[in-house]
Design goal:
Blueprint (H helix, E strand, L loop, with lengths): L6 H6 L13 H6 L5 H12 L6 E8 L3 E2 L3 H8 L4 E5 L5 E2 L6 E6 H4 L3 H25 L4 E3 L10 H11 L3 E2 L2 H6 L10 H7 L2 H11 L7 E3 L6 H12 L5 E4 L10 H13 L6 E5 L4 H10 L3 E4 L1 H4 L6 E8 L2 E2 L16 E2 L2
Parallel strand pairs: 6-7, 6-11, 8-9, 9-10, 10-11
Antiparallel strand pairs: 1-5, 1-12, 2-4, 3-5, 3-14, 12-13
């Protein structure tokens, strides 16, 4: 699919009747079909009037503080163009109005990608920032992103990769984890236990069928009291039981610090000191802090990360053919940020 150049091409474009999903594929993004249409009109005018060789310097800046993510993906839109790019390294903190990316080149080459670049950086940085907030609370204790079910599947891998950039130890979404160079994290859902009809019976099946590298972390809130189920699992699996997972629903009060303290005490008294406690289910920063203090060893965090507000990004042209320029209210010329690194 060729890149859009004119508004007439936009008018002629038709969505295929056999299209099954609404999300844009890679070719459609690269062709410019996800851009704001006024960038196509701008390119057509500049091309028609002989401004194709106009060199510009464009800078991207955020509206609030955060953690940068999405740089690598944004660069994939630009790597085949004759442009120079500087950017913050992924995972680095920035302040509001800091320049996080600078692009130099012919505007008609890269201007059509402004919408996509800003969207990639805005969402990815929002998710990475939320993950960093979780990391600051969990400290040395691991947490895993379980947020894929809360977002459109087309962006779930992007979100979970961004969470790993922000500090998550892993992710449940297969493609999200693979994009970050990791194996996906997770065991089995409540569905297995409900179908089998007994927590211990299902756990034994898991232990027998799953390979050794699959963690023996078992849900304990499906049928019986969580502590009772944990002790049953300890007796059945012994040292093979690595952890129990608390995911008590809100209808029963959710996972509480009191439950965690009771769980830890009774596991220890029964000789299962090796069994870790993993907590998940609607966790926010305050709840994570309380549960960590009570004895939780690791966390699954979903909606706190997935629902993070995107960090608005803006792209401004700051030089035209080497001359400092800016729209009213902005300072003309290149903005100093020594943290930027050449990336393209």
């Amino acid at each position: 699919m060729k890149r859009l150049h004119t508004i007439q091409e936009v008018t002629r474009y038709r969505v295929g009747e056999d299209r099954r999903l609404y999300s844009a594929n890679h070719d459609e993004i690269l062709a410019g079909l996800t851009t704001d249409v006024y960038f196509v009109k701008t390119k057509q005018i500049l091309d028609s009037e002989g401004y194709q060789q106009t060199d510009v310097t464009a800078e991207v800046f955020p509206r609030r503080d955060g953690i940068i993510a999405g740089v690598d993906e944004a660069l994939s839109l630009l790597k085949d163009l004759d442009v120079q790019v500087e950017a913050l390294p992924e995972g680095k903190a920035f302040r509001a109005k800091d320049v996080v990316m600078r692009i130099r080149g012919h505007y008609t080459d890269f201007g059509i990608y402004e919408t996509a670049i800003l969207g990639i950086l805005a969402h990815s940085s929002g998710w990475a920032t939320a993950a960093r907030e979780v990391k600051q609370v969990t400290g040395d204790k691991p947490f895993f992103c379980f947020g894929a079910r809360h977002v459109h599947p087309a962006v779930a891998p992007v979100m979970e990769r961004a969470a790993i950039v922000g500090g998550a130890s892993g992710a449940s979404c297969i493609l999200g984890a693979k994009l970050a160079g990791l194996e996906p994290s997770g065991t089995v859902p409540h569905a297995l236990f409900l179908i089998i009809g007994d927590t211990v019976a299902a756990a034994k099946m898991y232990d027998q069928i799953m390979p050794p590298e699959s963690p023996r972390t078992i849900l304990v809130d499906t049928f019986k009291d969580e502590v009772e189920e944990s002790l049953r699992l300890g007796k059945a699996l012994g040292t093979r039981l690595e952890a129990i997972r608390l995911d008590t629903p809100g209808e029963r009060g959710g996972v509480t610090a009191a439950l965690v303290r009771e769980m830890r005490a009774k596991l220890d008294l029964a000789g299962y000191q090796h069994v870790k406690i993993f907590a998940s289910g609607g966790l926010d920063l305050e709840k994570i802090k309380l549960l960590s203090q009570a004895g939780v060893d690791a966390f699954g965090v979903g909606s706190y990360i997935s629902s993070a507000t995107p960090i608005d990004m803006t792209m401004d042209i700051k030089e035209v053919n080497g001359k400092p320029v800016a729209k009213r209210g902005r300072l003309p010329g290149v903005t100093l940020n020594e943290a930027l690194k050449p990336v393209l």
